[in-house]
Structure formats: C-alpha cells, structure tokens
C-alpha cells in the first residue's frame, strides 16, 4: 500500500484520544518539553479529529490540521467554528499524502498510521517535517501476545497494512532505524479495544456506503474472531527526531 494513500485521513473515528486526552496529554507534553507557541500538526480532518486539535490548542500550541481532501477540511472548519475553536487553528491542504508536509514545520506531529505500514517508510518520510527535537506521535496497529487470537484476525490486518503486524517494542526499534529516539509505547487493552470499536460502530452510519465497506469488515472481523482477547491492538508510539551523530543521553548515577 502506498504511503500516499488517502485512507489514513478518512478513518471515521479518532482513536488517539483514549491515549492522549486530558491528563495523558499533559503528561506527554511535559515529557516532550512542549511550550506555548510551538507547532503541532494533526494529520487528518476527519469527524473525530477535532477533539485532539482542541486539546492541543488548549495547551497553547499552534495547531495545524492537514488533509488531502478539501471537502473534509471545509467540514472540519465548520465543526471547529461551532465548537468555539481558537480562531488561529490553521487548516492545510496536502496535494499528496503525508510526504507533502512542509519541511521543518512541526515540533509535534500526530499521525494515524494504522494503514501506513511499513512504519519505517512512513517515519522516514515524515522526519523532514519535524524540527530539531520534534516528536512523532503515531497510532499503529500492533501485535500483542505471541499470536493473533485467530488466523482471520491476523490475516485481516496483514491485508489492510500490507505487512505482518509487529509488537510495539519492535515498532519502536524500527523508528530508531529511521532517525528517531524511541520514547514510549502504550497499547489499548481488551476493554479499550471494545470501547474503540463501539465508537467505530456508532460512526459507520455517517459514512457513504462505499466508504463503509472496509470498516464494516474490520468491525465484523473483530467481533467474530477477536474472541475477547486483544491479541491485535491499537498502540500509540512516541519518538523524538534524532540528529546524525547525536550522542545518547547521559546516564545519571546516584552518589
């Protein structure tokens, strides 16, 4: 699957907020050292992306929401205005996919990467958009446990992503190979995945029939093949842009 595909921008539910809402986002901001006025880019102007953009703006970050679809950006603009979003919330039309982001434009870059495997290709393409010490925050589909709960579940996601699913730790290692310092990984547990799919199920009626097809299949596969075990889970990965030749951080010792 091409990394310039439009699919990651059209997911009907923003599943970043279970990881990044409220106190979790504050902890991430403190860990990454974000300060007011720094630039945060959100890839995707889907119906669920407004919440993340508003939370980031609430931290004092200069937020830009980018998408390839002009109509989706217009709908986002209307929704943002209705919600009382800050007037300086910026919208940016991407002529292509995520590779079209302006160079050195973001201190923080949020991307839904569940359908953009292999992750290392995407991360390498996004790296120029990050400023020095900028952070990539990516939601991915990962394998948790030794094997998928069923062959159908594993095959579904391998078909969707174009490659075998990998554990979060291995995904972080792949980010490191493309010029990042891995910082953290967190995965949804069983109840979190159930909540995520409840959100997806509620959002499906908002989609046109052709757009619903892959998500109907995803939901059905989870319900019938997941058998209550989140052997496949959505994970959020956080990594800092690292410069060539950069020395590893000093190790502090007691005494």
**Rg from Cα:** 18 Å
The helicity comes to 25-40%
- What's the tally of helices? 9
Beta-strand fraction estimate: 15-25%
Query: Class by helix and strand content?
Result: alpha/beta
Which segments are poorly predicted (pLDDT under 50) over 5 or more consecutive residues? 1-8
Q: Quick one: biggest sheet?
A: 7 strands, mixed
Number of strands: 7
> Span between N and C termini?
53 Å
Mean pLDDT: 83
Q: Report the order of strands and helices.
A: HHEHEHEEHEHHEHHE
What characteristic shape results from the CA principal axes?
globular
Oligomeric form: single chain
- The strands making up the biggest β-sheet line up spatially as 3-2-1-4-5-7-6
Describe it.
This protein has 255 residues and is an alpha/beta fold. It has 9 helices and 7 strands. It has a 7-stranded mixed beta sheet, with helices on both faces. Helix 5 packs across helix 7. The longest helix is centred in the last third of the chain and has 17 residues.
Descriptive terms for the model:
255 residues; alpha/beta; seven-stranded mixed beta sheet; 9 helices; globular; disordered N terminus
């Amino acid at each position: 699957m091409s990394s310039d595909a439009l699919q990651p921008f059209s997911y009907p539910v923003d599943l970043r907020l279970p990881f990044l809402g409220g106190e979790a986002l504050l902890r991430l901001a403190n860990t990454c050292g974000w300060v007011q006025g720094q630039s945060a880019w959100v890839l995707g102007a889907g119906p669920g992306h407004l919440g993340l953009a508003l939370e980031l703006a609430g931290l004092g970050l200069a937020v830009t929401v980018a998408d390839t679809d002009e109509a989706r950006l217009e709908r986002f603009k209307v929704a943002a205005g209705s919600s009382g979003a800050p007037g300086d919330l910026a919208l940016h039309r991407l002529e292509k996919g995520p590779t079209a982001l302006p160079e050195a434009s973001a201190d923080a870059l949020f991307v839904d990467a569940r359908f953009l495997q292999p992750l290392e290709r995407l991360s390498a393409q996004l790296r120029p958009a990050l400023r020095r010490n900028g952070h990539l925050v990516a939601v991915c589909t990962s394998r948790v446990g030794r094997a998928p709960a069923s062959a159908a579940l594993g095959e579904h996601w391998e078909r969707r992503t174009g490659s075998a699913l990998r554990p979060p730790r291995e995904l972080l290692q792949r980010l490191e190979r493309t010029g990042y310092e891995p910082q953290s990984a967190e995965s949804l547990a069983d109840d979190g995945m159930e909540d995520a799919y409840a959100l997806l199920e509620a959002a499906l009626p908002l989609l046109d029939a052709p757009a619903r097809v892959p998500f109907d299949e995803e939901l059905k596969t989870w319900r019938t093949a997941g058998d209550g075990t989140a052997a496949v889970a959505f994970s959020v990965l956080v990594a800092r842009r690292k410069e060539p030749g950069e020395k590893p951080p000093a190790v502090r010792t007691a005494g």
